[in-house]
Design brief:
Helices cover 35% and strands 18% of the residues. The protein is of the alpha+beta class. Strand 6 and strand 7 form a beta hairpin. The relative contact order is 0.13. This is Peptidase M20 dimerisation domain-containing protein. Pathway: Lipid metabolism; fatty acid metabolism.
């Protein structure tokens, strides 16, 4: 047998089996084919992975909003930066702490409101800013645009803060630290609220105050909503702001285009292998659930402890919950696009992995799990936040109670989450106390102008960072506004390293003077960039140059029309004034107006620099023959049809020339 084997080895040494087996030639050929096929597939896969990595394209394409290369910022001398920082320091000194839904610091909140009015006097006094107190403490502002806009937006922030926690762990007083120079040589504004969320309240106010002082009334109307109880779910603040705002929008014939609230931030060094900071925009938000856990046991003398106490039973349940996490949903929510958008900026090795998630998603999910911060984007999280039991050191208590706070991934559902809780804590009573579902995902494709406005504004202050959409892993007031718009973004341009993220609700919350200055500039640029997409009501006043008025009057004269207008000094020609009633003709006129509105191409304005200051295209450029080619915002297609114009808008009998004239000037 041994001999036979060795002779076979000699005879078959050139075969692919190296002559070590007794296979027939046919089997050998088959094995060879299989082996080579496997090798070929592996080589092809490796090649595909490498090619994919080498050809990764940037997914975010920046839309020109008008001032890309040379954005004009607020003036920011050293003195101005210092004064702005000092105002944030002062804001932090108000202890506007929300302890619970029924324990808010209302006196401090009243004082904080007075403080805002004192340090931003011009905006509170402005003709185009209207302030409405909501539920006494929350604040809603309407900033009237120069145009009668149909698509205002909302900037949100909240004025309350969480308690400081363990005061002794803070390096500086959480409400009275001022500006501190740290060992890295940077100046920081320290204190509770520095990044959550008084930087946003003050940043928005600074930008608006600046615009008011410099007579930069925006073209586009917008709203500002500052809640006073966000940290305890916003039912008294944002929820009420939302109700009032809905009514205001309705009364003004407006629809909220988008809203921007706090949320995610600029984050660096969060994923090893991605060496650029990421502008992480929260395009969706996790759901929320609060679960009570109750265990029971015998109450006995501590000298004869039971085999299992209520505390032991509860502790086991809680430990199981931490060990058997809720399942990963990687690939089923916005987290996959966070990585896909970041991939082109990764090292080549990481590009091979992130560029080929179809192959490596398991690996990536395991890697995300290594840090609690990155893990939070891929699953429902479980945090044990309260654990209570016992009254005396020698009494074994009969009851133990804990509270778990889940943040629910958008692809998960509450029933499944609770089922796993009950499996993990099988000898514990598990009761759902409170919950709300995850949000919808707001659109972030490249043609979504609100997304572009937010990202462009962030890029203007952080030009080297790369935008990525993603999941907001905590919660905001936006839940209360979800009926008002489907474009909800959660972001402020605070710059965080992973260790800084722990400062939210943690110890030594702070923002550098430099970054705070960027926060202010971000809101200012956002107010400017938002003017790019002004959708103007068809009933808006028409802005006409004096020479055009003359031309108009000539046309009227030629057509024997007796003009009711004598106000040639005014360069504002209200449409309603040039229209006289004609009931039978109004239907036709409506059609003709509608036809013009519908004929206008839907592409976004390629050349917004052609706009005049008022946002209208220069009227001398809008000759009749040019009408089709006129650069317009896509917004025209969304204009209200004239049927929905206010009832007092009378349509009059126009000659063809008049009609041309009046139509061409409607913007
Ligand atoms: C690949 C990139 C991974 C990025 C991971 C980022 C991890 C972020 C971690 C923490 C985010 C902190 C966000 C702080 C939000 C503060 C707002 C807040 O506290 N809201 C309350 C609202 C609640 C309804 C009372 C909350 O508890 O969420």
């Amino acid at each position: 047998m041994m001999r036979k084997h060795s002779s076979h080895i000699e005879a078959g040494s050139s075969s692919c089996c190296s002559g070590t087996c007794y296979c027939s030639k046919k089997v050998k050929v088959t094995i060879c084919v299989v082996i080579w096929t496997v090798i070929a597939v592996i080589v092809a896969l490796i090649l595909a992975v490498i090619i994919k990595a080498a050809t990764l394209q940037e997914l975010f394409e920046r839309m020109e909003l008008g001032a890309r290369d040379d954005p004009v910022f607020m003036s920011a001398t050293e003195q101005e930066i210092l004064e702005r920082s000092q105002r944030l320091v002062d804001a932090i000194s108000y202890r506007t702490i929300s302890f619970s839904g029924t324990n808010l610091s209302l006196e401090a909140m009243t004082d904080f409101g007075t403080f805002l009015e004192r340090v931003f006097p011009n905006l509170h006094d402005s003709d185009f800013v209207t302030f409405t107190p909501i539920n006494t403490y929350s604040r809603l502002y309407r900033i009237e645009g120069t145009e009668k806009t149909l698509n205002p937006y909302l900037l949100c922030a909240h004025m309350d803060v969480v308690p400081e926690g363990d005061f002794d762990l803070w390096t500086h007083d959480p409400f009275d630290a001022g500006i501190v120079t740290e060992s890295d040589g940077q100046d920081y504004i320290f204190g509770r609220g520095a990044i959550d969320d008084k930087h946003a309240v003050l940043g928005i106010m600074e930008a608006l105050e600046y615009k008011v002082v410099n007579k930069e009334q925006p073209k586009r109307t917008f709203y500002i909503g500052f809640g006073h109880d966000e940290e305890v779910s916003g039912y008294l603040g944002a929820a009420e702001i939302s109700i009032t705002l809905e009514k205001m929008l309705k009364d003004n014939g407006e629809e909220l285009d988008f809203l921007l609230d706090e949320g995610m931030f600029v984050v660096a060094d969060i994923i090893p292998g991605i060496n650029v900071p990421l502008i992480y925009i929260g395009v969706a938000e996790k759901g929320w659930a609060v679960v009570d856990l109750d265990a029971e046991g015998d109450q006995v003398h501590s000298s004869t402890p039971p085999l299992e106490s209520s505390i032991g039973i509860l502790a086991h349940g809680v430990a199981n919950m931490e060990d058997n996490k809720q399942p990963s949903m990687f690939g089923k929510g916005p987290e996959i696009d966070t990585l896909r958008y970041a991939a082109p900026h990764a090292t080549f090795l990481l590009k091979m992995i992130l560029g080929n998630l179809w192959l490596f998603s398991g690996l990536v999910s395991s890697a995300l799990e290594l840090s609690s911060q990155t893990d939070s984007i891929q699953r429902t999280t479980t945090a044990v936040t309260i654990f209570n039991a016992g009254v005396k050191e020698n009494v074994v208590p009969s009851q133990a109670h804990a509270v778990v706070n889940h943040r629910i991934h958008p692809s998960d559902n509450l029933e499944d989450v609770l089922e796993l809780d009950r499996e993990n804590a099988d000898r514990v009573k598990v009761t759902l106390r409170d919950s709300f579902p995850p949000s919808e995902v707001s659109s972030y494709s490249n043609d979504v102008i609100p997304f572009q406005i937010v990202v462009n504004s962030a890029l203007e202050v952080f030009p080297d960072a790369k935008p990525v959409p993603g999941l907001m892993v905590a919660n905001t007031d936006t839940f209360h506004y979800k009926n008002l718009t489907d474009k909800i973004y959660r972001f402020t341009p605070v710059y965080n390293l992973p260790e800084d993220i722990a400062r939210f609700h943690g110890i030594d919350e702070r923002i550098s003077v430099d970054i705070y200055s960027k926060v202010v500039q971000f809101y200012y640029r956002l107010m400017v960039n938002a003017d790019f997409d002004v959708k103007i009501a068809p009933t808006a006043q028409v802005e006409v140059k004096p020479e055009e008025v003359e031309e108009f009057l000539e046309i009227l004269e030629e057509s024997d029309y007796e003009s009711p207008i004598n106000n040639t000094d005014s360069n504002l020609l209200p449409l309603t004034k040039v229209m006289e009633e004609s009931d039978e003709n109004s239907a036709n006129e409506t059609d003709s107006h509608l036809m013009i509105l519908q004929d206008i191409p839907e592409e976004p304005n390629e050349n917004p620099s052609n706009e005049t200051d008022s946002g209208l295209p220069p009227s001398q450029d809008i000759l009749e023959e040019d009408f089709d080619a006129m650069p317009v915002n896509e917004t025209y297609s969304d204009m209200l049809p004239l049927e929905s114009a206010p009832k007092d808008l009378d349509l009059y009998d126009l000659t063809p020339e008049e009609e041309t004239f009046s139509n061409r000037t409607i913007d």
